[in-house]
Specification:
Elements (H helix, E strand, L loop, with lengths): L6 H20 L4 H9 L9 H13 L8 H14 L9
């Protein structure tokens, strides 16, 4: 059985997952690519998984989920500026 992670280890893992998410999200090339990226992410309970879940929520309805931070909102705005309005592909 694995030893439980310390708070510092959990914090570091979340920070690394967050950095990976934003780096990859800023490299997206289209809404189709964004859908594949978001659905291919970790589960919501895993480190950074909520970032992918929030992105799916946003893309489904164009609504920013409650509780997201300023960096996520800025990313959503950036994606809309780069790719145009969301397509009605939200419920794949």
């Amino acid at each position: 059985m694995r030893k439980p992670r310390t708070l510092a280890e959990k914090t570091e893992a979340r920070s690394r997952a967050r950095a990976r998410f934003f780096a990859a999200a800023r490299a997206l090339t289209s809404w189709d690519h964004a859908w594949d990226f978001a659905y291919g992410g970790p589960r919501a309970i895993d480190d950074g998984g909520n970032l992918y879940t929030n992105l799916v929520y946003f893309m489904r309805g164009g609504i920013v989920p409650d509780g997201v931070d300023d960096e996520q909102v800025a990313l959503y705005r950036e994606l809309v500026q780069r790719f145009g309005n969301l397509t009605p592909r939200g419920f794949r």
